[in-house]
Amino acid sequence: MSADILLLGRGPLRATDGNTLLRLFDQAQEIRRSSSLKVERARADRALERIARELHRRNLATSPCQGEANNGGGGVAASPTP
Hints:
By secondary structure, the chain is mostly helical. The protein has helices at residues 3-6, 18-34, 38-57. The longest helix has 20 residues, at 38-57.
């Protein structure tokens, strides 16, 4: 578990590129799923909310990929741009 991911609730995200945000979103989801500590899950939730807001601001989606439906999904895909 990475403390950097859990501290995302505090640091700036504007300078972070989109691909890194998507990877951080996946990592924070994994922490939220696998952590046995309520405090870590709460921090992961805050980080997820903050990352999701930044992804939304950039018009990126945080929904499962269509191609990953057969192997468990849960990935993060960019939304189609008109």
